[in-house]
Amino acid sequence: MQDHQLLGPQASSSKSRPQAKSETASSPLLTDADRDLLANLSDHLADFLERAEHVDGHSRFTVALYRQAWTNFRRFLVDRGACADVAVAAKLPLLDRWVGWNHKRGIQPITANSSWRSLRPFFNYLETVHGLANAYRSARAPRFQMPDPKALKPEQIRRVLAAARNYDWRTPYQRARALALVGVMLFAGLRKGEVLRLEFADLDLEDGTIHVLKGKGRHGGKPRTAYMIRDLLPILRAYLGERRRRNYNPPELFATGPGSGLSDSQFRRIMRVVRDASGIAFTPHSLRHSYITTLIRNRVPLHGVQAFAGHADLQTTQRYVRLFDDDLQGYIRKVRLQ
Question: Are 276 and 268 in contact (CB under 8 A)?
Fold first, then answer.
């Protein structure tokens, strides 16, 4: 039986259906059966994403990764080089060729690996719910070299903070918010998604802790307690003071109005402004890396750093120990023959 027959009847209507047909209509290499299969898969994707977010409790950022992975795989299927010899239905198991296609297009191995892993839950869903043969059952994830964490040096951290503080923001509130956004990543190690999901009630300035309800991990994310470096306390107090003065009271900690939280696009815009003003090519995750690096430089035991960073595996934390070539050079210069 053909894969597309296993999928069952096509849905009569879907938001994704018009897009699916328009993307494939211009390709002479696809048969009508191919186009129907891709349209049907796109319909099932909408159901899968709905279930992932509202039943399985995956974050909207994880759901976006699922969507991006399918979009990339779908482009591979309709690409001339990918579909010139075999029908789409017969090409669904060709995950290795998909990885190679991405590499030829200049996609970094770590990104290809992320896409490969992000597509797997969709095909697991298709197998379980619709009986589609699942190529992931016998496939191995593409290999890649894990890059070293990219932490900022202390002088770079100071420049980023100064840029957030001294940029010509339109209001004192925007200034305080930008500094607090940078601060919770630099001085508490929060990830971007954790920052955007952070709520006012999650802060405990007396204890210097942040309750992260939905951290990194499956099934909605693993809760953890983030511990602040004391430099963050005055930054957050100043921000909360501005927040009260503006009478902004949404559940989210970082607000854009009386009842609205910060969106992903607004977050990225603020980070871009601070990055350009500082002249430091940082990312939100490099700010988190800098928090972990600061702990290690201050000789916090690795098991403590693991807990503070929310790492599930100590090996992840140990990667940060390899960063300090400048420290090693300083140590060796002090060595003298006795």
Answer: no
Contact 220, 274 (CB under 8 A): no
**Inter-helix orientation angle 60-78/17-24, to 10°:** 30
Taking the mean position of all CA atoms in its chain, how far away is CA 222? 15
Q: How many CB atoms lie within 10 A of CB 239?
A: 22
d(CA 83, CA 78): 6
Q: What is the mean pLDDT of each run of 10 residues along the chain (338 residues)?
A: 37 39 57 80 91 84 88 84 54 76 85 88 91 82 66 91 97 97 94 91 94 60 84 96 95 92 93 96 90 84 78 70 60 67
The tokens describing 124, both together, are 């697991």
CA distance 69 to 52: 14
| pTM score | 0.60
